[in-house]
Design a protein that fits this description.
By secondary structure, the chain is of the alpha+beta class. It contains seven helices and seven strands. Strand 5 and strand 6 form a beta hairpin. The protein starts with a helix and ends with a strand.
Length: about 220
């Protein structure tokens, strides 16, 4: 087949140059077959391109930035941040509440402000006023004026430990019951009434400044 005849066969709109019907039919068939091959090659290239894009997307490096307590934007661990809403086991939850109670209810005249400030790092800003009432700031100020240091009364050998129990899951709520001791500057220790602390928590993404990913949303205390 010469180049002119090949052009008459495969070029779109050249069917009319054929006098016989079968010639026009063969010309249209050749054109459609050519279009089909072009579409097949384009489809294969599209599938390969989409597979490569998906592979690159799955292997991309995720950057996560958060604000610290000072308002500075810092880079956080993407794995811990993206999986921050995963389940916490009972030991992790109770451990967080135990550390929070130590920071909130243990103090000396020298570190009372620092301890309270650190405890408030894990409190939702919307409820910090209510939480400050539960921390008994007025009572604490009187104890500081008297030069008293307050600590949680624990003795592992005698079985005196902080009692922790998860009372609810939705919302997450933990009850902590413990005794406290008030120690004067001369070393005299006096027992304070036992206290029951009910802590309501919310799960948040983990970060270097909150590795447990827990925030206090409510706090109530009663003398047991």
């Amino acid at each position: 087949m010469t180049a002119a005849k090949r052009q008459d066969v495969i070029e779109a709109g050249r069917e009319h140059v054929h006098y016989l019907p079968w010639g026009a039919l063969m010309s249209a068939y050749a054109q459609q077959r050519l279009v089909l091959w072009i579409m097949a090659v384009a489809l294969v290239l599209s599938v390969v391109g989409n597979c490569l894009l998906a592979l690159f997307y799955m292997r991309r490096e995720t950057w996560v930035f958060v604000k610290d307590n000072l308002g500075n934007v810092v880079q956080a661990d993407p794995e811990s941040f993206l999986r921050g809403n995963g389940n916490r086991d009972d030991n992790e939850i109770k451990g967080f509440v135990l550390r929070f109670c130590r920071d909130a209810y243990e103090f000396t005249p020298l570190d009372v402000r620092d301890k309270a400030r650190y405890a408030f790092r894990f409190v939702d800003p919307k409820v910090q006023g209510a939480v400050s009432n539960a921390l008994r700031i007025t009572e604490r100020a009187k104890q500081i004026e008297q030069g008293l240091s307050v600590k949680i009364d624990e003795d592992i050998e005698r079985g005196r430990l902080v009692e922790l129990s998860i009372t609810r899951r939705d919302p997450l709520e933990v009850l902590a019951v413990f005794s406290r001791m008030a120690v004067s500057s001369t070393g005299t220790a006096n027992a304070l009434p036992p206290i029951a602390v009910r802590v309501t928590l919310r799960l948040v993404p983990r970060s270097p400044y909150n590795p447990n990913g827990l925030v206090v949303t409510d706090l109530t205390t009663t003398n047991s």
